[in-house]
Design a protein that fits this description.
single chain; 873 residues; alpha+beta; 6-stranded antiparallel beta sheet; 34 strands; 25% strand; GAF; SpoIIE family protein phosphatase; PAS_fold
Amino acid sequence: MITARAAATFQPVGRSVAVARAFVRDTLQGWGFSDIVDDAVVLTSELVTNAVVHAGTAADVQCLRYDTAVRVEVADRYPEREVPLQDAGLQIRNPDSEGGRGLVLCSALASRWGVEYTPAAKHVWFQLDLPERSAGTRAASPALPTAALPLTDERVRVAVIQVNRHAVVTRWNDDATDLFGHTSEQMIGKPLTELTAWPQTPGTGIGLAEALLLSRWEGTYGIRGADGRVQPVYGSHLRVRDTTGEPSTVCLLVRADERAVLQSPARGPVNSDAASGDRGKAADAFEVFIGSPAPDDLDGLLQRTVERARDMLDGDAAYLLLATDDETELEVRASTGLPSARQRFARVPVEAGTGRYGSARMPAVHEDLNAVPGAVPLLAGTGMRSIVTVPLKVEGRLTGSLGVAAEAPGRYSNEEALRLQFAADRIALAVESARLTELERLRRGSLSFLVEASDLLAGTLERDQTLALMAQMTVPTLASWCAVYTIAEQSEPELAFVLHEDEDRIDGIKALLAKLNPPAPEPTPGARIWTAPSDAAHSTALRASLRSLGLGEAGRPATGPGTALATAAAVGGETVVLPLVARNRVIGMLTLGKPADERFRQEILELAEDLSRRAALALDNARLYSERTAISQALQRSLLPPGLPPIPGVEVEVIYRAAGEGNEVGGDFYDLFPIRDGCWGFAIGDVCGTGPEAAAVTGLARHAIRLLAREGFGGPAVLERLNAAILDEGARSRFLTLLYGELWPQPDGSAILKVVCAGHPLPLRLRPDGTVESAADPQPLLGVLEDLELVEQTITLDPGDVMLCVTDGVTERREGTRMLGDDGLADVLATCTGLTAGAVAARIQRAVERFASDAPSDDMAILAMRVPALPDN
């Protein structure tokens, strides 16, 4: 049921949009529905713009009040004009088009909406449900019966508290004592902030200490009473001067549920003609900036500021820019009435030109922008003709710029500039306070981000993992998508990694970037703009759309317009490139991108630059580590035999493990090689120590043994000459234990071994019945004595026998004070009867690994030889 109705008609001129906004705002505030005013004004603005600007007809606006909702109807006189929708969905035809955005907003903000056609007009309407509000508030009282109003004591207590410029209490009345339990004697001389508690909602943009510095402010917070409980209160604060001229603040506080006692009535914009040239009326017109509770964050405060500034001067558009830290550039932080191409966080220089009209540091009035092209780059191509801009200053510093524009020329004069400047002066401190709060939060977050990034990057030396970490740290924290290019020496940039916050779009972006020439590897620090991805994405989307309409080139592969548009939306915003410079060389490029109509904040670019420096060093360290590891592994592999030669009638298995990360060969080594027909040489040794130094002696020993054995020397002669070669190394020489032998397979299925055990753990022989015994006697190790007298021992392996040779990494395996030892090895070998040589070696390895919980700290080599048992007759 309709309980109230208000209607008005607006002519097809640009200023009608602002007048229509004011009409809807005044109507809803007069009905007490200030909670939905902002949404209603935004939707009305879009729909009236469609009527009077795009359709070019008069617009009829009607506001209908119901018990639980408000309905606003906007009708134009051009019913033939189609609804700019695509099929049944709410998708805009062109990403850069403004058509249809009003209906998209309706679907997002309104409870219900629709379009109705008549023979003479088209009605677009939306409905906003009224939120539930606590009884007793000024906005809710007209619709509530008396019985529904809140109950109070015999009287409403209004606490009057006065604080000086340091927030110290100088006055505390009896009602304050009744409400909070603290007496005036207890509170006078104490800071009020000791008792205050801000609302529980995190992210509040303004604190009580800052609020007390404003000329006037209202809001809800908590006061801690004498019993320790926090009581929600609503306060109205007025800043005054006492008799000595010192500033102080008078606080009027009531219980939160009695806020209607103090809450200021909602105010709409006043008529601009009546307020021209009158500073007092200008203050009233801009009272909404101060009298209303501040938004919870900086963005909300700035958006409300531009909307009120536009309404105050009856403009068609408004924008607000904030200065960067060095005050050389201004960033777009809020706008209304401008097309989407005027992207948020777009940057313009402070000095846009010469003279009064080109400076952001002074108020400026442009009667006709067509007469001074380029004076306001932000408005180029928007259709705005006249504009007034004023600076936001705090303590003489430029902190921002506020502008209001109109489509008609000559709309503004110095009087409007003075009004806007007066308003800007009153809001500048609150904006700067919120900006500094946000900046401090960003800096703290940036520091934490960089610390975490450094830890992650330092935790890996793998190139591919470093690339993945670089991308994952930037998406979505810094950018919507990221691409990393790497540059090898004397080569072109190569696309190495691509990541998008939506995994379904990674392939499309990767395919798009693969078609583009990579950005130039310039070593200049800082981010630079790269337009190629967005240009290519929009061009691809356009061609796909034309082909879908049958207007494209024949024979071209079909690309779905939906996929092309999605890719264009994903990479259609600003793209920046940061060089990855390490050790005075460009080793790659970090490319960050935003989706369509978005730009990077200066703080984000500075953070990305810091990250790129750390990432470049991590990536170069990974490259150097990979190169050194590859070289080391190639050299180490040369110290191992290429493979085990087959020996007729004998099974042979070797297991080798080098201690230390990245080492394939250490102090332990083995070899098995043919000496002559029917004879094979084998060796297993242990150089004192591990790592590359031990590996060097390993190479000397292995190659010398092969050479001497093939020259016809027997076992003792081979080891004696090797001992002399080790001693010739001087300070680089190392002790060496070595078991060397010759293997002679026999026609009857047995095998003869001639061995020399020079200080090495004795070989063990396993018989088929499980008996384990030593197969040689110990002799002096190599690298100590110059004159060695070694003897050769002969062993016969019968069918089914196993010969096990190990290094001390096996026998000296420890767990605390326990050691595997020779006896423990013999016990394990005794369980290997009937196993093949490979199975024997594997069981010994498992026993060594399971003996202790820690990873082995010494090199380990296991050589198992088995003569197969003869088949049963």
